[in-house]
Each structure stands twice: as structure tokens, then as C-alpha cells.
């Protein structure tokens, strides 16, 4: 009897001790707000190319206070906007998350699909197709979805971007809202999220800020002779419609009367306008002040850098000016966040969806090797060859995303040998100038291609949404007509795939790593920081070096 009493007392005391330990355990700490900043088309070297001209409060602040993963790469092809935003927020790749391009084809029927198109919804504050958008084509969850699930949907998530895909894909399936820019100069959304715009968005639109910014005109922030980038403007830069040159100052007030309010996207003011909207969302949606005490998430994509880059190319004073202005905008935004939440009470990360190549003609004019892979001309010539060999026209219908798409319905109808067609196409494509490798998507693993390229091709290949044959061009070649102005992206090369990745704020220690990291590592890193589950298609690894001791 005494033995039983002793055992009972020991068990009871142990239970009390364990209960006390549980009760004394601190709550899991998290930031009030996470802000994701994706700078569209930002090459990694832009962190340092203009470093001497940056202010102390923008990019420099992130580098000097935050943690930089200096060797972060995109680990798939093609490197384009929709895939980049999807991959950053899912930790996954097109093979799994299904966003195989900005536009892609469904292999079963050859139907062209825009990444966020959704004809089951309607635009809000928009009556045309620009509002018929949602994340339904995204096949995996995002880190923003997982935050929603982890807090039983109490966290608030909002996506903002001039581009629909830059707002919708990061915000995920469970977002409270996503807002993108319309040709009218106003922010719009879709019925996937809401039936009507909130009053604060209507009030924000009523300010007509887009018009006000364009009336300022675009001149260089500093004396033009002090700019590092000064490639001859009329040779490599694209002109605005109706303009006979690209020189500063650019009369955006006059241009907007003929080009329309879409012009804002191709000026640095588009980024300023986007961050204005981000501030308005924080204040009016009480982001970071969640009554449930949980973390909120604001996904912001800054798109004007992409529009400016495409038009004017890497070695342009317009691109340099855009980044110098963005730096000032970021400094102002960070000061606002400090005032709103207190320094160190929010976490921000900055990355890019892809980089950009030098204009090939610029590269060649400086005695470098490069060129233009004219996809339309190549496709026409290839179809002519295949018609002679197999007796039917247009057996391939696209070379989109550097992938050849065969017309499977026609091949099946005419009972043609698909393998023979692919072999013939590959043989022809391999002979072309500017082509480094060509691979059958069904046989990439055994192809004579460097292993790094194999991995990126396989990661980018979605059987239902990608082409049949992958073309890898030589360095500094990209799809376009000879002597095309501006720049593009989409390849595996470092200029397209080496991206910035900097974390700053709550839970982040100061430092850097030079080890190899990947775009797919961003989502699991945020998941680890927030102590929530990774997105359900994640293949990345958390960058554990970023955290300070309190995590």
C-alpha cells in the first residue's frame, strides 16, 4: 500500500513539473508583418553596379543591416516573370507548380493559356479581360497560403503589382485581395477576391496619382554626364510611340495623351505608385496590427524595372536612373515601416523574378559573341523542312519559351511517326547559328548536356504545359529579330538566372553567404522564420544562416 502511494505521489509531482515547464515556455515569436519585394528584371549585379550612388536608406540599408545570399540562382528554364513569382512563393518549379511560362500551351489540345487567366471570374473596376484573373492555374500552395492555413485564416494576405501575375501568384489561393494596374490608371481586382473594391481603394484611385506622376515628365535624377551607363541611345534603346529619339527629358505628360495611362509602367514613377498603394493597404487594412496577434503578409512586385529594361536595355542611363529612383523610394518606404511598426518589428525580403541580358548588338559591337535567335523565322523554316519529309504543313505550331511545340492532334490524325518528327526537328535545330544544345523533353536525362542545364530543363518541364523539344541558345543570344533594341530574358545564363536575395528586419542577423542558394529556397526560409509548414510543392531548403538567436 505504501509503495502504491509513493508511486502515485511521484507520478503526480512529475505531472506538476511537466505542466509547470509547459506553462513557463515562451510563446513562439513572429514578426508583425512580412513584406515580400520582388524587383522585376533585377540582375544581381544591380545591387553593386550603382552602389556608390545609392542612399544609405534603400539598397545599402538592406545590405548593411540585413543578410544577403550572394549566390542565389534560378534553377529552371525559362526564366520569365510568371514562373519567377510563382517559384519565389511556392519554393517549387514549373514541373510541379504548373506555371510553365507567362503564356503556355496545353499539350492535350494546343490551347494557349495566359498564366492567371480565369474566365469563371469577372473584373472588379474593369469590364474587359484584364480583370478576368485568378491564381487557379497555380497547382501548388504558396508561403502566403501556408500562413493562412497555419493561423486558421486569421492572417491577412494582400498582393500588389502593376502586373496581374505579379500580384496574384505571390498572394496565392487564399489571399484576402490582389490588386493590379489597369490602362485607365486605376487599381483593379477580380470577383475571385471580392464583388466590389473597398472604399479605401476607390478613394486611392480617386486621387489620380498616375496622372499626376506622368505630368511631372521624366528627367534624369542627377546630371546626365555623371551617369555610368551611357550606351548610344538611338542604337540600342527602344523609342516611345511617336517619338523620334529616346533622350532625356522624356515628355511623359504629352506622351500619356497619345499612349495612354499604360505609359506609367515604363517609367520609374510606376514603382513609386506601387509603393504608394502598398502604404495605403497597410494603413487601411491594418496590416501588421492583426487583432488576433498573428503575422500578416504583403506581397509587392515592382514591375517598372522590367518595362524600362525591356525598352532600353541593360547599358542605359534610363535603367540606371530607374534604380537610383527606386533606391530612394525604398528608403522612404522603409522609413515609413519603421515609423508604423518600429524598427525590427517587421521582416522584409527583396529578390527578383529574373535578370536580363545585354542587348546582343551592343555586345557584338564591343567585339563580344552574341546574336538573335529569330524564333518566327526558325519555326517557318523548320515547318517547311518537316512538310517535305512527312507530307503535312505546320507540324509544329510554336517556339514559345525556347520550346518547340508539336501539333499532337494533327500527328495523331495523320498517323505520323512522332519520334521520327522529333528526331528530324532536333537534327535541324542543332545546326542553327546560336544554338548550343537541343533536347527531347522525354529524354533529357540521357542527353549530352552539362548536368546543371539538365537539372534546369527538367525542373522547368511540365508534361501537360511545356513543349516537346528544348532549345538552349549560346550565351548572349536571345529570341528576337536582328538588331532589335532593348533587352529580354528567358535563358539559363547567369545574366538571367543570378538574382539578388536580401533579408532584413525581425529575426534577421547581419551577414552574407557565398554558398550556392536558389530561388526555391526563399519560401522555406520564410516558413522556418515563421515556424509554419513549407508550401506543399516545395523543393527548396531553408537558408538557416539568416536567423538571429531569438529564433
Structure keywords:
single chain, 551 residues, alpha/beta, Alkaline Phosphatase, subunit A, 2 domains, four-stranded antiparallel β-sheet, globular
Sheet/helix structural class: alpha/beta
Q: Which percent range describes the beta-strand content? A: 15-25%
| CATH domain class name of the largest domain | Alpha Beta
- End-to-end separation: 49 Å
Largest β-sheet summary: 11 strands, mixed
User: How many DSSP-defined strands?
Assistant: 19
Q: How helical, in percent, are the residues?
A: 25-40%
What best-fitting shape do the alpha-carbon axes yield? globular
Write the CATH fold name of the largest domain: Alkaline Phosphatase, subunit A
Number of helical stretches of at least 4 residues: 21
Tally of individual domains: 2
Q: Which architecture of the largest domain per CATH?
A: 3-Layer(aba) Sandwich
Low-confidence regions: 1-24
Q: Write down the Rg.
A: 25 Å
Mean pLDDT over the full residue set: 94
The CATH H-level homologous superfamily of the largest domain? Alkaline Phosphatase, subunit A
